């Protein structure tokens, strides 16, 4: 089987720091390669893979403000589509735009939907309901207007994360700094619980950061550690007492939760979106409805066994398991 995996061109695949879609695309490509699949990763020219790499965009446009994002997207996506006949299957991880090529090529396309940026994009998915194969990343993140072939949870390379049996003395917020991700709420939870908070992530909303986050940063009790790469991510997640994830939107998955588990660190999250699918309440963390509950949950974290977090991650969220599930989907499509 020859498979093409289409990653975004916003960041490198895998990303140096932030880049969840690029991270998942990398995990899919590397997982397939480890299973003996002839896989070509379509990503930026600086990307890293054990498969083959094909590209027309030398550097990520997210790092180059002079690049036009739409031009990069069009050149990048069309590069794969013009080579579609070389592959048995195309695995699209770049949202809805590649779908517009799917009726013009003969190679079947699997599209993993990494969440919906807006309800306005659903008409594009609806148009290709009968000619594409959609995969959701959680059961909660499904549109009733679309047809799905499967749900496949994101899997990661467990070798990049170090299990720490003993918890650290700080709470951690790890993710993009944006109102919907709950950075401010994490600060309030940590202050009420009387614990230090470390914040790490890409500042996606500058105004929010300046007005709601920066005034609390004192580099003692509230620390901003920047946008962390893989090594720092492993260190921060492993050293945390708990990961805070007080989201205010229907989170489609949440990679940081699974990454936290591999380090043995439990998670306190607002019960939104996929959180009930990822968190076993009172075992790998706590699902709460509001901040006061989150503060109470911090007190109960010490009663949890960090080994349970690692065990759940190894059973459900490995790169190998994800690759096996996608290979089954590919074979099912090709047998049709």
Note down, in words, how this protein is organized.
- The chain is of the alpha/beta class and 336 residues long.
- It has two domains: 2-157 and 318-335, Rossmann fold (3-Layer(aba) Sandwich); 158-315, Rossmann fold.
- Helix content is 34%, strand content 17%.
- The protein contains eleven helices and 13 strands.
- The strands form two sheets. A seven-stranded parallel β-sheet has the order 3-2-1-4-5-6-7, with helices on both faces.
- The radius of gyration is 20 Å and the shape is globular.
Beta-strand content estimate: 15-25%
* CATH hierarchy class name of the largest domain: Alpha Beta
Helix/sheet category: alpha/beta
What about the largest sheet?
Answer: 7 strands, parallel
Number of strands: 13
- Determine the N-to-C terminus distance: 15 Å
Rg over CA atoms, rounded to whole Å, is 20 Å
- Helix fraction by DSSP (H/I, runs of at least 4): 25-40%
Short recap of the structure:
This protein has eleven helices and 13 strands. It has 336 residues and is α/β, with parallel strands linked by helices.
């Amino acid at each position: 089987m020859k498979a093409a995996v289409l990653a975004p061109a916003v960041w490198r695949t895998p990303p140096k720091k932030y880049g969840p879609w690029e991270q998942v695309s990398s995990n899919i490509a590397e997982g397939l390669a480890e299973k003996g699949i002839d896989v070509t990763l379509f990503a930026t020219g600086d990307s890293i893979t054990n498969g083959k790499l094909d590209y027309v965009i030398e550097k990520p446009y997210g790092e180059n403000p002079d690049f036009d994002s739409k031009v990069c997207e069009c050149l990048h996506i069309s590069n794969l589509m013009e080579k579609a006949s070389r592959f048995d299957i195309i695995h699209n991880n770049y949202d809805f735009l590649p779908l517009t090529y799917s009726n013009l090529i003969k190679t079947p396309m699997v599209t993993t939907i990494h969440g919906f940026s807006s309800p306005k994009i659903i008409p594009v998915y609806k148009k290709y309901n009968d000619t594409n194969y959609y995969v959701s990343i959680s059961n909660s993140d499904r549109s009733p207007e679309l047809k799905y072939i499967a749900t496949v949870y994101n899997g990661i390379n467990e070798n990049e994360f170090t299990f720490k049996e003993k918890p650290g003395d700080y709470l951690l917020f790890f993710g993009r700094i944006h109102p919907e991700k709950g950075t401010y709420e994490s600060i309030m939870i940590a202050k009420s619980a009387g614990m230090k908070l470390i914040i790490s992530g890409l500042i996606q909303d500058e105004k929010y950061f300046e007005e709601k986050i920066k005034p609390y940063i004192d580099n003692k009790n509230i620390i901003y550690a920047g946008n962390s790469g893989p090594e720092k991510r492993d260190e921060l997640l492993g050293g945390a007492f708990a990961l805070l994830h007080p989201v205010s939107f229907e989170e489609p998955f949440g990679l940081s939760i699974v990454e936290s588990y591999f380090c043995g660190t439990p998670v306190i999250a607002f019960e939104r979106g996929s959180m009930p699918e990822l968190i076993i309440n009172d075992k790998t963390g706590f699902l709460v409805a509001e901040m006061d509950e989150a503060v109470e949950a911090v007190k109960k974290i010490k009663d949890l066994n960090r080994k349970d977090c690692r065990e759940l991650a190894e059973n459900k969220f490995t790169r190998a398991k994800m690759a096996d599930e996608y290979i089954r989907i590919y074979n099912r499509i090709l047998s049709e």
